[in-house]
Write a structure and sequence with these properties.
Elements (H helix, E strand, L loop, with lengths): L14 H11 L7 H14 L3 E5 L2 H11 L7 E5 L4 H8 L4 E5 L13 H4 L4 E7 L8 H11 L2 E5 L7 E2 L2 E2 L6 E5 L12 E5 L5 H8 L5 H5 L19 H11 L2 H24 L12 E2 L6 E3 L3 H13 L15 H6 L1 E2 L3 H7 L2 E3 L8 H13 L2
Parallel strand pairs: 2-3, 2-4, 3-12, 4-5, 5-8
Antiparallel strand pairs: 1-9, 6-7, 6-10, 8-9, 11-13
């Protein structure tokens, strides 16, 4: 019996050639030829004023927290149904996450609940575009504008997804991308900070380069560089950037391939959804997804857990997703929030299916058949 992995890294184009080319250029440490090419490609394609590549999306979120000037006692509104980095980036600065429930359709933060969570201590709203489907950004940006708040888009799963014609990561004051090997476009470990407020660009460059004004020195704006702010080493390896550039050159082909995989899952499981046995992902009409993930919602946690066991017995590696942060040990220590019924009940029913570039039609059919046979 052949194993069907949950995820599988892949080569889409000239990744290995570009790595060899980076070596010949003699600059592997970062901010070389390919780091700049990746940033320019993302800026041009997604209409983002400034993109800075980072070693991870976590690093981009940490930079965003500092640029939002979050400090001790400040509050940041966000969903509990997210990866730990969304919250820990702000906790590192002394901030306190305030969790808000998610919508039952997109599994994104419920924009109708945000305003009630705002207090005099609120500094920012950090939204998470779950599964590559946008939050309701118009409403969220309007709320933020009324209250003088920064908006950070955690678009780790949302590279090349769109909302009303705008790329995710280009709408809030700051956006954060991931190029981890489990994402659509990969380089092993990697990320990017999208800066849509020009006033934040210079400080972002300083924070990223260990708190120095070295980038201004390289541009000839100062005659020497020095330590000017608190920062860290948030520059990725040029080898990672070279691999990533090979992926970004193939962004349309990768997206089309994932879209076809998503559509086959949806078609194969539609009859089960129509009978009410499972729930399927929903994409609102004004959103264009990058098809990052395909999940099903089982009728209960017991059914989900049993299905996981049976699929794994057939060498099919499906997984659950986040344990909600409000129910985690650190969440109870560092965060607050009201009751979150959607987060609680959806998180225990959600089952993610294998989803990667090289997933074959036959492998998908096997996954679908096993789900149908075990319900």
């Amino acid at each position: 019996m052949t194993k069907i992995p949950f995820n599988k890294p892949f080569i889409a184009g000239k990744e290995l050639f570009y790595i060899a080319q980076a070596v010949t250029y003699g600059n592997l440490s970062g901010d070389g030829h390919f780091t700049k090419k990746c940033a320019e490609l993302l800026q041009d394609r997604f209409s983002i004023p400034k993109v800075l590549l980072t070693p991870s999306c976590t690093a981009a979120l940490e930079m965003a927290a500092q640029l939002c000037e979050v400090g001790p006692g400040d509050e940041v509104i966000m969903p509990s149904y997210t990866f730990v980095s969304t919250a820990s980036a702000f906790v590192r600065m002394g901030g306190r996450p305030v969790f808000v429930d998610i919508r039952s359709d997109t599994l994104n933060i419920d924009e109708q609940l945000i305003e009630a969570a705002i207090t005099p201590r609120t500094k920012a709203i950090c939204v998470v575009h779950y599964a590559g489907v946008s939050c309701e950004m118009d409403t969220i940006m309007e709320i933020a504008a009324r209250h003088g708040l920064k908006v950070v888009e955690d678009a780790a799963q949302g590279v090349n997804s769109w909302y009303k014609g705008r790329a995710l990561g280009s709408i809030g004051h700051l956006g954060c991308y991931s190029f981890h090997e489990t994402k659509n476009y990969i380089c092993g470990e990697g990320g990017a900070l999208c800066i849509n407020d020009p006033a934040l660009v210079q400080r972002a460059e300083i924070i990223r380069d260990k708190g120095t004004n070295r980038q201004r020195f390289f541009r000839g704006e100062v005659d020497k560089y020095t330590w000017v702010d608190v920062g860290s080493s948030y520059v990725p390896s040029e080898i990672c950037s070279a691999f990533l550039y090979g992926q970004l050159e193939e962004i349309d082909r990768i997206s089309e391939r994932r879209g076809a995989i998503y559509s086959r899952y949806a078609a194969g499981l539609q009859s089960l959804a129509e009978s009410g046995v499972i729930g399927l992902p929903q994409i609102p009409a004004d959103c264009v997804s990058n098809y990052h993930m395909f999940y099903v919602l089982m009728g209960s946690s017991a059914i989900r857990d049993t299905m996981l066991e049976r699929l794994r017995a057939q060498q099919i590696h499906a997984f659950f997703h986040y344990v909600p942060l409000h129910s985690s040990p650190a969440g109870s220590q560092y965060a607050s929030g009201d009751e979150m019924p959607n987060t609680d009940q959806i998180s225990v029913r959600l089952l993610r299916l294998p989803m990667f570039f090289d997933l074959s039609k036959a492998e998908q059919q096997r996954v679908v058949e096993q789900i149908a046979e075990n319900l």
